[in-house]
Amino acid sequence: MTQGASGEQPFHPPSIDPTKFDAVLFDLDGVLTKTAVVHATAWKRLFDEYLQAKALRDHVPFQPFDILLDYQRYVDGKLRYDGVRAFLESRHIVLPNGTAHDGPEQETVQGLGNKKDGYFQAHLAQHGIELYDDAMQLLRNVRAQGMRTAVVSASKHTAAVLQKTGLADFFQTRVDGIESERLHLAGKPAPDGFLEAARRLQVDPPRAIVVEDAVAGVQAGRNGGFGLVIGVDRTGHAEDLIRNGAHVVTADLTELCP
């Protein structure tokens, strides 16, 4: 367990206290489900294919997508098209936005995003979805304590994933990529999705907890003024999570069970 060193009074003991908090807002990929690595692999396949073709076309060296650094910095936790745009900007590449109906062969932000989504869906269809045991234990524990729960994710597949894994009944509300688009909510690191979930649960942000594995996610939790932002370190990036707003970071969510 790592605690933030931002000068604030640390939480002690670092566990979820149901007398101080009324709700827990969970991210999906990388927190509840072992799908973050699937997303990262799909992003790498997408961008390496695109960058290789561009390098050949422009007669420049090929610089591949870094599945750790580039994924965490530019796309992890963000809405799909925001992730495409952010990574391309990091390579000084500007593409037209296109439309949501652009096919995978079209060289637009949304065309690339749709191509990545096809890679992700194909993997899920072939391999299925696994859950993190520690997250499930925490989820069951906070529910048993009478706390309200929500899932807040950039993924447009959130509802399908919850249904396939049997998680749907664990949450009172869901704010995902589809809902964010419908309500015109800004993606993480903006706090809009978490704030919308708290509003639906009728909980003030200081009385709610955010559980996130992405840098953009912990930034969103802090930007929204949530009472406790928990960083989940699945890939050895605890320092990044602390530096970007997590109050505490853990690799095992059972450490935080009330």
Folded structure, characterized:
With 258 residues, the protein is α/β, with parallel strands linked by helices. It has 2 domains: 2-34 and 130-256, 3-Layer(aba) Sandwich (Rossmann fold); 37-127, no CATH class. The protein has 10 helices and 7 strands. The protein has a 7-stranded mixed beta sheet. α1 packs across α4, α2 packs across α3 and α3 packs across α4. The longest helix is centred in the first third of the chain and has 23 residues, at 36-58. The radius of gyration is 18 Å and the shape is globular.
Radius of gyration: 18 Å
Helix content: 40-55%
**CATH homologous superfamily placement of the largest domain:** HAD superfamily/HAD-like
Query: Any idea of the CATH class of the largest domain?
Result: Alpha Beta
Count of runs of 4 or more consecutive helical residues = 10
Described by strand count, sense and barrel closure, the largest sheet is: 7 strands, mixed
Task: Tell me the total number of β-strands.
Answer: 7
Average residue-wise pLDDT: 92
Instruction: Characterize the overall form.
Output: globular
Strand order of the largest sheet: 1-7-6-5-2-3-4
User: Please, how many domains?
Assistant: 2
> Strand portion, in percent?
5-15%
The termini sit apart by 15 Å
CATH topology of the largest domain, by name, is Rossmann fold
Low-confidence stretches: 5-13
CATH architectural grouping of the largest domain: 3-Layer(aba) Sandwich
Secondary structure category: alpha/beta
Give the helices and strands as they follow along the chain. Answer: EEHHHHHEHEHHEHEHE
